[in-house]
Amino acid sequence: MADDVIGKSIPRIDGLDKVTGSAIYTADMKLPGMLYARMLLSPHAHAKIVSINTDRARSLPGVKAVLTGAELPYRVGLYMIDKPILASEKVRYFGEPVAAVAAVSEDIAHEAVGLIEVEYEILEPVLDAKKALEPDAPLVHEQLHTYECVKGVFCPMGGTNIANRFQLRKGDTEDGFKQCHKIVENEFYAPQVQHVPLETHSSIAHWKPTGNIQIWTSAQSPFAVRNLLSVALGISHARIRVIIPYLGGAFGGKAGIHLEPLVALLSKAAGFKPVKVTATRTEEFITLPCRQGLHARIKTGVSREGRILAQEIEYIWDAGAYADYGVNIGRASGYSGAGPYDIDNVKLDSYTVYTSKPFGTAYRGFGHVELFWAIESQMDMVARELEMDPVDFRMKNLLDVGSTTVTGEKITKHTGSVRKCLEAVAKEIGWAKDARPAKETNGKIRAKGIAVLHKAPAMPPNTASGAIIKFNEDTTVDVLVSGVDYGQGTATSLSQIAAHALKLPFEKIHFIWAKDTDYNPYDWQTVASRLTVMGGLCILRAAEDAIDQIKTTASGALGVDKEELDVDDGRVFVKGDKATGLDYKNVIMGYMFPNGNSIGGPVIGRGSYVAEGLTNLDLETGQGLPALCWTYGAHAVEIEVDTRTGEIEVTQLVSAFDVGRIINEALCRGQVIGGGVQGVGTALIEQYVYDGEGHLLSDSLTDYKIPTVRDVPHEMKQIFVETPHDKGPLGARGVAEHPMISVPPAIANALFNGTGKRIKALPLSPENVFLALHEDSKKP
Amino acid sequence: MQIVTLKVNGESISVPVEDNWSLLRVLREELALTGTKEGCGMGECGACTVLLDGVPINSCLVLAREMDGREIRTIEGEAPQGELSNLQQAFLDNGAIQCGFCTAGMLMSARGLLMRNPDPTEEEVTEAICGNLCRCTGYKPIVAAVLDAATREKQHGR
Predict the structure, then answer these.
(1) CATH topology (fold) of A293-459+615-778
(2) Most CB contacts within 10 A, which of A127, A192, A536, B2?
(3) Which structural domain range is residue B48 located in?
(4) Contact assessment for residue B88 and residue B107, using Cβ atoms and an 8 Å cutoff
(5) Complex ipTM over 0.95
């Protein structure tokens, strides 16, 4: 048997292209005759477009097309079809594209945009999601009641700013609260933040005179781009080809569809010339999507012994101007939103609310970074109220085998163990129940904090993937799936699964890197930490199919029943007798008998998978089965806070995840380290800041900081628990998003443990921490 | 337009440039050296880092017209014959790459460091790459890779 590659830290297969600079990203591409696009952006957060005059722009030499919203009667969207390609009639956020130009050079396009004259009538912006719920709040979408969305799943409320209302009812909270020894209620806030991929959004489209459209784009999901474009423009899927070259970071911000429709329509308007747009860093901040903000209110009732008896949760999501993706974040954070706790009585309402700000979309964790900020801060606060140790309190309440989730799902021995994760991080950080109050040394205080987390892929219940395995003449194997590897390393781990399943050396696997809807099998989207699981299952099935074909041909060649055959090391042979058989190379393109007669043919394995057993959720109670597989985890941190400056340094970050089974350990660690540091960014420094009129002030890397090498926790440790998942490939679960979740509350809990100060609004910036530490001295 | 002569990765190249063109633009658009990336165009992210006479600089902040006679080294010069340098190999072996968009800039900052200081401390590595943003890796594997490369290069050269 060939050495099994599962679990091995094989270096990523794309590494060579990347260290030599030969990896080509969309932003690097240039086509013959290509034009360059620039957008005119709204200078207002909310305004009526009274008139647009493009005459001067059109007459500038070198300009080949100018488009305005009035010429584009289309709306696009994944879950909620609410987003125009260019604003028409009114603008809904500062930075929204109002018009676009395609010209022979970027400089001319830029100049032409400056010649477009727009007259606006300024409207009152809605800058606070809670105020957007008030009856007299201005409406962001007057026509909400006419928008299409996924029926039976989302509940937009026409005539309000509520894009979706999700509700969940388990047990009887009113009765539950009556039984409680203590009730603790708190409000928390997480501001909008940004993905900040190093590669900004970039798209090239070529609308050909034949009516076919070819697109190269920095997107996470080639088939979603194709589908949404097809639906929006009413063009057959077969006429649209989407290609994803190398992709420079995404984190959810390149899921769904973004600049692709605009460049496609510019290409058509410019006489079928290819058109490229690459967002500037400023556009990345103000025009392209961010992560939604969250206002959370949590009321928790506990018994004297520390059992949570009832919990009431309200999530108000600041969706920004569009909620094409945001409605599903509201839904996912609803069914997942009580955390990995066993609670009999839960009432949860999650509202996705339009405001006059840049729109939110998926971002690593899909709402869970935000909701766990609230839940895991609250759990520590409840524990302290009970004078209980926060680890002990959680252990009393965490889900266990036999527990029932808030949607009615039974936890089994295959589900994974959050308890083991918490135990592991508490042990590793040296958690002490009776830790004495931290001592201040030179104005600095050290303290520890913990938090747990869970997440399952948030996706429609019929989400599907496919894989194709094609043998080449020399017994190397082409593996095709359509999930995109934008850094996670999935291409490498899926190649390992293919090598394992085909019983071939890893070097034989040729993973087809570029994604092309003309050649690759369907895949819904590369999101939700679902690719290792769903892509992996498809590859296992495709490998099984390929091996079956090999055995069928070999059976005819050897005159032996198929069931009597086995495969290993690139050979098909009679079970127990490796010598009696054939090398793959004599079978995989068909077998030829000595007389020239041939049987079989090229081996092409096919694997398909649709998420099995999931249900839509009851619209009144939220009951049902939404989750393909849960990944549990926990973080423990040690911080040092400088009481003189409010600066927090994370001295240790210990993380544990129940990954089911490790496919590639180094890549797994890479996800946990990278995600952990991204979580530190959300925790300590990142936020969108506006002026009073809704202009985004943090619109560059000067004013919006992300962690540098200096902000990394001094020590980081990754622990993997392996409770095999019965539905995952070889037992594996996804772990791409999870490392970022619950880093912020672990730090806030440490801050409280060290200083007695509780901060309930992110970020834990030096300013906010300093003000919290010195709030007493501020008072007159 | 004026003609400047650059020495890029050891080769002399004369190229016409406009007054307002950055070195980055000339490398990417005129010389098709797209290994060097643009992440912000404002000197904040370090993705466009190249070596100018051996010193790492943000090529988006330098005017091409002022580069006449100067020596530029880009990622494409790190493995000219296709054989990886120890630094590149260390990036591969230490998991220092994810999406790859910051990688060229990181490698150039690290190369600049190793050229002036073949035996850097962890703090010196940190200092050398603190102007290069990476959103994927969490930096730790990158620091480990540069230290690993220094050890390898002391033993085996580049």
Answers:
(1) Aldehyde Oxidoreductase; domain 4 (3.30.365)
(2) A536
(3) 2-77
(4) yes
(5) yes
